[in-house]
Write a structure and sequence with these properties.
Layout: E1 5-9, E2 19-23, H1 33-42, H2 44-51, E3 61-65, E4 73-77, H3 88-106, E5 111-114, H4 127-144, E6 150-155, H5 158-171
Parallel strand pairs: 1-6, 2-4, 2-5, 5-6
Antiparallel strand pairs: 3-4
């Protein structure tokens, strides 16, 4: 399972995977830097398709086409609003990853690229919380499922990469 999860420093919009994950708001119309980058790279067709999808509650996921992206699919998910880290916030964040992976599996998607969901805009989930939640949720899913065959955690900067690298090392037996 660990060999199926790869950490990578880079631009998620340049990933050559079957799906990229977009961290967005409940309407699929707005979000932070990842959302803006994905929509910019995908072109106006993605925004138009998102308008017809409907709302997506925090922790759930929705699928659209990739339009002008190298990836044929975009999986949209909504992070919880971070307040104090109590209880349900980390469960909802884990659900973002599991819901996206479940949707990928249901559509036979073999490779998925994730950003660090919910850790990029205010109120942001602290990286020391977000990274372990992401790694544990992904590894748990991969341990129990054959698809997707490959998952990439695409980190946009060194700080995010290091946080996920640390979380991955701590998750290993």
């Amino acid at each position: 399972m660990v060999s199926r999860l790869k950490l990578q420093l880079g631009d998620i919009t340049a990933m050559d995977t079957e799906a990229v994950v977009n961290s967005t708001d409940e309407t699929l119309a707005a979000g932070g830097p990842v959302h803006v980058a994905i929509h910019r790279a995908a072109g106006p067709g993605l925004e138009a398709e998102c308008q017809g999808v409907g709302d997506c509650p925090p922790g759930e996921a929705r699928l659209t086409g990739g339009h002008n992206l190298a990836s044929p699919y975009v999986i949209h998910t909504v992070a919880p609003t971070w307040q104090d880290g109590g209880g349900a916030e980390t469960e909802i964040l884990a659900s973002c990853y599991v819901s996206a992976l479940t949707l990928a599996k249901a559509h036979g998607i073999r490779s998925v690229a994730f950003p660090s969901i919910g850790s990029g805009i205010q109120p942001q989930i602290p990286l020391e919380v977000a990274a372990p939640v992401a790694v544990k949720a992904i590894l748990g899913f991969l341990d129990a499922n054959e698809l997707p065959a490959q998952v990439f955690m695409v980190c946009f900067n060194a700080q995010t990469y290091q946080a996920h690298q640390k979380a991955l090392k701590e998750a290993l037996p």
